[in-house]
Amino acid sequence: MMGLASGLATSPAAAALTLLVNPETRALVLNGSNLGFSRQVTSSLPGGVVDSDVGLVQWQASGLGTPERGSGTVLSEGQLFTVAGAVLRDASVITSADPEGTGTATIRMFLEDSGALTVTGTGEPLIFGSFTEETFAAFVLADGQELPLLHGSGFSPISVTVVPEPSTAVGVAFGFLTLFRRRRRDPVWIRLA
Questions:
Q1: Residue 158 and which of 2, 57, 148, 184 are 20 to 30 A apart at CA?
Q2: How far apart are the first and last CA of the chain?
Q3: Contact partners, residue 130, CB within 8 Å, separation at least 6
């Protein structure tokens, strides 16, 4: 068993995770699959009980604007991603201000114990109605960047892409059609010698 676990730690990640951000609908979509290890942390439970073998995986990007206030949404298994090889205890998507006062975008999960696991995006949109435009802006400002792995090991950073709003996509398509149509109408003159 130890050989398998150490082999997983040194092997390249199965595939990268990609986060698609739609600013118009305030929706996030996670695609792809990634293999890695959670970090063992200590957690306090209600009643003063301390759980010393909780797994934590967290991706976070900083320097993303200056949010008016932080906001977060608690996720359950099957929302945004699924987990194989571990039992999900708690997960969340958060925007907040870091100590320097700049915005952060975070995807975090706590697991029943630490160890190897595979995180797979559901490919389904998750709409965050609780996020204000200002707090969702942290994810929009991460366009073309990555959410680096802050806690855990072996996972690749999550690449972030803002998808064009439907009106933008229609405008681009209309522009290409107009250009194509105009080129077909222009006569082509060939000089014969």
A1: 2
A2: 80
A3: 71, 73
**DSSP symbol at 72:** E
The larger pLDDT score, comparing residue 24 to residue 50, is at 24
Q: Are 19 and 160 in contact (CB under 8 A)?
A: yes
> What is the rounded radius of gyration, in angstroms, for the C-alpha atoms of the chain?
22
* Concatenated DSSP letters of 14-39: S---EEEEETTTTEEEEESEEEEEPE
The pTM assigned to this predicted structure is: 0.72
How many other C-beta atoms lie within 10 A of the C-beta of residue 88? 19
One-letter amino acid of 58: Q
95-146 tens-digit pLDDT: 887 667 778 889 999 998 888 999 999 999 988 776 667 667 888 888 999 9
Q: Are 36 and 111 a contacting pair, CB within 8 Å?
A: no
- In whole angstroms, give the CA distance from residue 25 to residue 97: 23
Query: Over the stretch 60-75, which tens digit does the pLDDT of each residue have?
Result: 998 887 666 667 788 8
**How high is the pLDDT of residue 6?**
33
Sheet holding 81-84, edge to edge: 33-37, 116-121, 81-84
Distance CA 128, CA 125 (A): 10
